[in-house]
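Before a colleague's protein record goes any further, I have to sign it off. What it holds is a sequence and that sequence's fold in token form. Would you go through it and say whether the fold makes sense for this chain? The record follows directly below this note.
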Amino acid sequence: MIFAIITLLSPLYLSQTAKASPFFSNGYFTPNGIEWCEENLPLYKILGEKFFEHHNHSLESRICVSLYDDYYWSYEGPDRVEKLIERSKYYSQLEISESYEESLTGIIDTNPAENKDQTLLQGITKDGETIVQIISSTPKKNQTLEINLVFLDKYNKLKPNVDYSINVTQQGQKILENNNIYSEKGLSTLITRPLNSEEPVSIKVLINQIGIENSSSIGSNQEILEFTVVPEFGVMTIILFGIAISMLILLNAKNKLFLFKLK
């Protein structure tokens, strides 16, 4: 029903999703689409916002710009293209959602509906041999949290065959726990249950073993790395900001009173 409404009420959506292309099919980019984005990056750097006008505000151009700002655009892993294709699916869904909202208001925004709530966190094991990166969405009430884990060596190359556990909590409540995860390529994507609030989320990653058993490359120390995903403007941030303003007002009032007494 939603898609029918979009098709009827949003000309932008209709004009850009009616046909598949060599670059875009089944709701996301093909490898040719990622290559098209790479070829158009210099043009975007020159034209800026006029880049969309140059491409007639196409869906492809808006998704490209979203990808340019995505963490995986500068990612150097062997599966970079696959990761970008997967991210293009996400940005495509954002565009569809925005088109639906625009169909209700009649106000069309041709800029990309890019995701601005990604958090990149990084931890290093004590021996400096393993880097764990987490790319997470921002905690939002009643929404799941997407957690992407990347295991790298000290040269920033993917570490394959990682056996690890993960524990994710919010305000002391468990929202995800898995004690037996195996990442063949050193990459994992996990989804939590819907969050109860926008409070910070604590993530503990326990590395059990790296490498294939009976191999000389095996490594294990069962080391725990801890991360905290904090909302851009969480409750504590607002409270601390309010306290800081109150203190400034109080100090300002005291200074005025002191100067008044001197007179």
